[in-house]
Amino acid sequence: MEPWTLRDHLESYTSDYTLQVLVGYCMVYIFMQTFMIPGTIFMSLLAGALFGVFKGMALVIFAATSGASSCYFLSKLIGRPLAFSLWPDKLTLFQNQVAKRRESLLNYTLFLRVTPTLPNTFINVASPIVDVPYHIFFLATFLGLIPAAFVTVKAGIALGELRSVDDLYDFQSIATMFLIGVASITPTLFSKNKW
């Protein structure tokens, strides 16, 4: 079965059983986020393909924030030994940064959510251990997920509109990938350490 045929069946099922799909989607996403199971980006792409930009973003932000919150509380209950065994140095550094930025903790945690400085999984698990208050964690997570949710939901819409594999390889897509590749390797080419 071709992927676009599968997508058409899934869209039809979603329109017939909207509530069941929404509940199932949220349960899977929250479960994955709570227990740090990789793959939520694919769930975000799916939200875009099935629900469009605004509904998809609302769904992703709700599910991701709920799952991150569940992970926060799970970590608060039983996560300390796991966190210290997985990331002892990173956890100490994060704890020092949180203590140093206590006055502007919302700005700091929001910065961490928006930029790829620290993985979200680490932030979810480590935040209660280093005493980031839940209200700050929640707000930074909710606001910080908006840009990434927008990008992945839009990408899901684009993937949902594909009718053949050839649609992936138009001139604009190839040129964009080429420019991204050049931009990503340019710092390495001009690095003083290389020469």
Shape: globular
Q: Oligomerization state of this entry?
A: single chain
Mean pLDDT: 87
Largest sheet: none
- Radius of gyration of CA atoms, rounded to a whole number: 20 Å
* Class from helix and strand fractions: mainly alpha
Distinct helical segment count: 9
Proportion of beta-strand residues? under 5%
Weakly predicted, low-confidence segments = none
What is the terminal-to-terminal distance?
Answer: 51 Å
The overall strand count is 0
Helix content: over 70%
H/E element sequence: HHHHHHHHH
Task: Give an overview in words.
This protein is mainly alpha-helical and 195 residues long. The chain has nine helices and no strands. The longest helix is centred in the first third of the chain and has 39 residues, at 40-78. The radius of gyration is 20 Å and the shape is globular. The model has no long low-confidence stretch (mean pLDDT 87).
Structural key phrases:
9 helices, 195 residues, globular, mainly alpha
Quick rundown:
This protein is mostly helical and 195 residues long. The protein has nine helices and no strands. It has helices at 3-16, 18-34, 40-78, 80-86, 88-100, 105-114, 120-126, 134-160, 171-189.
Topology summary:
Blueprint: H1 3-16, H2 18-34, H3 40-78, H4 80-86, H5 88-100, H6 105-114, H7 120-126, H8 134-160, H9 171-189
Helix pairs in contact: 1-2, 2-3, 3-4, 3-7, 3-8, 6-8
